Amino acid sequence: MGDNNNELPVAVVALVVAVVALAVALLQITQAILASARGLPNCDERVIGKWAESTQKIFKPSQLRVEVLFQAPVIFIAPYDNKNGPVKDAPVKYGPVMTWNGPPKNGAVANGAAKDGTVKEGPAKSQLPLTMEGTPDSCTECRVSWDEVMGVKTAPSPNAKERVHTVENEKATWVTLLVAIQKMEKESKSWETKQHKRLAQPPRTDATDADSTISRLDVQKSPTLTVQMQIKQRSFETNPAIKKPYATTTISHLVQLAAVLGLYWKVFDPDDNKYRAAGNGYSLMGYRVTDFGIVFTFENTGSTVNEARRVIPTSEVKELCFGRVPTLYRARGRENITKEGRTFSRMKLEDNEWQDPLYISSQTGPKIEIFQLGSEDEIVETLTQIGCNVNTTTYAKTSGRNKHLFPVTFEVIGMLARTLHITDRCFRFLPNPTIFPWDADSLSLSQLLEAYSRLLGDHHIEMTSQKLENVEDGAKSDIEKIEQLVDCSRELCGDVGQGQGRHLTYLQLNHLHRAIDAADEIIKDGDTPWDNQKVVLDVLRCHLQEVLGAINNNPGTSSYREKSPSFHDLLELPPEKRERSFMRTYFEKILWSVIRLSTDRVGKVEQEQVSRQIHKETENRQSLHVHAPVAIRVGDSAPSSPSSPADSPTTPPAIHRSLTPTPGLSHNRNYPSVEGASKKKIEEKPSWEKTLQSKAEMQRVKIWYALVFRMICWLMLHDFDKKDIQVPSSDLMGNRQPVFIT
């Protein structure tokens, strides 16, 4: 009996020890199971913010481990009404979308903004990708802190300078990226609303019906370039090389996103896997992770400016990021949409077919609808496509020999690039599509416009002072078009000249836009825009040849020609007088070298023969009403029959090429050799009396005036960051290689 009493405590102790051991063992097993949950500590709110709420932990009993599932965004660039996304199984619940319907009317605030400056929302969308719009609801749907977007944590007062904290570096950088996008949208829209409230002018429209006016404004002025995202659920087990949740995009969308946020590339080397961009207070760096892919980190390194320097929200920005410039000869197709039970016709939001690298590569033949200016070789190819000679392409490729007041490449852009400004919007900035920097502080475009207007008026007076009885009707029509340019330039000087430097109101930007439209009508004068395309290209190539020749015609060089144009005098002039001297050289020397067709000048005989033949072919085609087949172009609403399917972006490149013959100057014609021209013939002094008698030369005068006027207006209407130059390869346009942001 005593032994039993002694055994009971021992049994109890043994039981307690066993239970404790079992508990410890269970805790060890639990700890081991929890330790198998890879990435769980990095799914904390301190790392991924509000995205931590969607983290899931799934226990797998067969494997005695825990799998961690997290949600992260897939980021891409698309038009505002895009209905497709890369994630097919994405959630379908999305928030309201803000709409912008133009400037305020009669002192009211802009549609989409309350009187206190906050943005209100339009009708909700469903089953659509999320559009980042800088509104509280958009931030909620994108799981971004509105306080961070407003800068509450970094700037306690409205006038306080934004402070960047360097000690809170545990947060995933893609969360910082989402905040930066929302902040850019919020600040730029608030600033634009203030600009419209300050002027309190109604939008310019030709419509008479109020309802149709509002609907058309809503359709036309909605941005065709927005940052969108979809939510994708992922597991850490599929990518063991990554410890933090990561966002996904593609290399082409990342390049475009960097441009939207104001970053410019300093290093972009896919061969060595080194990528670095900086600007506007942000930094973006990329490298390759073994067995995973290219990983980028996004950081806020300083204060940001997202107001007037915001990039124009137009889809062509996606092409400019890769050195491709759409021209005025690239027609916009049209499409029908239904809105609130009514059908509207509008221009297509995107030229998707022209973003196909295979379609516009050099192997398919040069196309004047797009200029490629992202490298020296592409610039040479573009100038060759225009028809320039070897000397000109050599000058353009040589560093330091292709600039007067600014690089000549920007002349090409200003003369033929598509107008990218959006009517009634305040934004002007674009990514630089060239390898040359644009420094708007080194010249005054307003003074250049004033000098142009004055010299053009003087030329017009000289023309009309001649006897016009014997002048052909075609030349008289050209004089009338030149008079329109005179009036337009004078009116523009009176309006835009009142702007302070580069700070132009949206009304002044609208005026510049209308001036470019007027110049386009003169450049594309004819039954179709492509009737006199060859003449325009011939005038442009002669102009570029003369300008680049003048830049490289300096005293002291072996190639110096005393009587040829030269910009050497610009080097000795003070900055206040350079624009006038520059434009005087254009009007007094460059113009006459470009337009003349029968002078037998030394070294110009062959060029004049080709130009005369181009004019002859153009006149014959117009007289016979046989227009170039390029009137039916990719993206146009061309008529189609049941037996002939309409063109579409899915059509193979071979079919596209059959419908769109390569435009530009012909290089396969055999011209007879020119003999008998005296190399010592004294060059005649140009005069309006003889020029007015030549219909072809007057046509060239009109086109040259319009091209120069358009160049000045286009460069005033658009702007570039002076630190931004083209670095990424044009081959990356449309590249869908996935990249990751940690």
From TrEMBL:
Ranges of compositional bias, category Polar residues: 659-671
Signal peptide segment: none
Biased composition (Low complexity): 636-649
Region named Disordered: 115-137, 189-212, 634-689
Compositional bias annotation for Basic and acidic residues: 677-688
Protein name stated in the entry: Modin
